[in-house]
Amino acid sequence: MKLYFISGLGADRRVFSLLDLSFCEPVFIDWVKPDPADTLCSYAAKLRALIPEEAPFVVGLSLGGMLASEMAKADPKLKAILISSNRTHLEFPTYFKVFKYVPLYKWIPGTVMKNMQSLYTYSFGVKDPDQKKVLYDIIRDADIPFVRWAIGAIMHWDNTESSSNIVQIHGTGDRLFRVSNTKPDHIIEGGSHTMTMDKHVEVSALLRRLTGSQTADGHSGINNL
To answer: What is d(CA 6, CA 30) in angstroms, rounded to the nearest whole number?
Structure first.
């Protein structure tokens, strides 16, 4: 069974590197260059076009989860699993409104954005030295023009609709998107915003269960959660 993965803002497939995906055939969706006018909705449609299956499982981390949410809203056959992400813009913390109207992300030099390691360490909650190295390597390799577009698209995301074909997984230690602002289907105790790394055992087991359970009529268990 193929399982499609979409990473978070400025990240790539390395953020999923610690997961045990031996139960599936993982397919990592790479970013495509967005048009300046793209919204999360229109960009999600572009990524959906890269997935040939009619009824795929799509796992999205952070930004990837928002894109998976848009895919699920547009296609009821698609099954979306959100990790450390939001179903709608209503789950964003209040301070996000500040960045919408005071777009600092447009003005901060790219080199500065890549070297704010203390901020990333705190926000993403990574403590293990080896995991920090992976995270910092990902940030170092980030495409700054894409990051600027993505932040703007997130700030102006207007989705208020949560589809039934979405499962949301959140960690109690997420400092970027607080679990108190969401109503997740599954909570991982102590999971940070990058819990595909620091809680990779628990996340792997949950993904295996969500994608592997079948009901008597042959439908995936994700629809019954």
So the answer is: 7
What span, in angstroms and rounded, lies between the C-alpha atoms of 39 and 200?
A: 31
Contact by Cβ (8 Å): 75, 51:
no
pLDDT in tens, 175-224: 999 999 999 999 999 999 999 999 999 999 999 999 984 333 333 445 44
By residue range, what is the domain housing residue 70?
2-224
Instruction: State pLDDT tens for residues 121-138.
Output: 767 777 888 887 888 888
pTM (2 decimals)?
0.88
Residue 43 to residues 64, 138, 162, 182, 184, Cα–Cα distance (Å): 11, 22, 18, 24, 24
Tell me the CATH number at 167: 3.40.50.1820
Separation in Å, CA 198 to CA 126, 130, 132, 145: 7, 11, 10, 28
CA distances from 36 to 8, 42, 76, 107, 150 (A): 19, 11, 28, 17, 10
Do residues 10 and 139 lie in contact, with contact meaning Cβ atoms separated by under 8 Å? yes
Please, are residues 78 and 101 in contact by the beta-carbon 8 Å criterion?
no
Q: Which of 23, 155, 141, 12 is nearest to 97 (CA)?
A: 155
